[in-house]
Amino acid sequence: MRALILVVSAEKKGVSSTTGMQSTVNTSALFQTRATQVVPKAMQGMEKAIAEKDFESFAKITMKESNSFHATCLDTDPPIFYLNDVSRAAIKAVESVNEKVGKVVAAYTFDAGPNCVVYYLEENRDLVAGAFKSVLGGKEGWEGDQGAAVKAAEGVLEGKVVDVLREGVSRVILTSVGEGPISVEEHLIDEKGEPVK
To answer: Is the separation of the CB atoms in 115 and 17 below 8 Å?
Structure first.
């Protein structure tokens, strides 16, 4: 599996991850449901998708989980806006790639910030990374063997999405996924969503 990271902003976030999480735990009505129902169900599906090497299921869960996380951030008081217009254009770009191909070959995810991580399988490199290279080929990050190996896929991304990405993405990072998940017994929050001390 490969990852293309669209670096939208290297600036310091308006709300740190720690502060944001504390606010979300304390004020979001969605958080408890997410912590007790949504995430455990997603983890079961994710474990199954990884074990079965089922990229489409992995991708759908990844995107839905990212959306759920950001919905919880928006439900926080005051709301936390980690995504921006460039982030939303990246989401539309991934949706466009999948639509043009006729199946799910790319997945987006965001952590607590606007930078987009796009996952894809090596066999779909030119379809996925190539679509982004066709509009972001002049940005830093395509140098080297990995970037040179990607063939631009012209005409996949069109319209306003192209303009927003070109204006808002500062650089790209091409990488691959590591050794896989590692089970740990340490937790940052307890069953009630409170920070572990």
So the answer is: no
For the record, the structure tokens of 52 come out as 């079965």
Half-sphere exposure of 138 (CA within 13 A, CB side): 5
The total number of residues shown for the chain amounts to 197
- From the list 49, 52, 51, the residue with the least C-alpha distance to 63 is 49
pLDDT of residue 34: 92
Q: For residue 17, count other CB atoms closer than 10 A to its CB.
A: 13
Residue 180 in this model has a pLDDT that exceeds 70: no
Integer CA distances (angstroms), 148 to 15, 46, 72, 145, 151, in order: 37, 32, 39, 5, 8
List, in order, residues 6 or more apart from 127 with CB less than 8 Å away.
97, 101, 105, 106, 120, 153, 156
Residue 131: C-alpha distances to residues 105, 126, 151, 157, 193 (Å): 12, 7, 9, 6, 40
Distance CA 20, CA 39 (A): 18
Backbone angles phi, psi at 181, to 5 degrees: -70, 145
pLDDT tens-place string over residues 57-102: 999 999 999 999 999 999 999 999 989 999 999 999 999 999 999 9
Reply yes or no: is the peptide bond before residue 181 cis, omega within 30 of 0: no
Instruction: Report d(CA 21, CA 31) in Å as an integer.
Output: 10
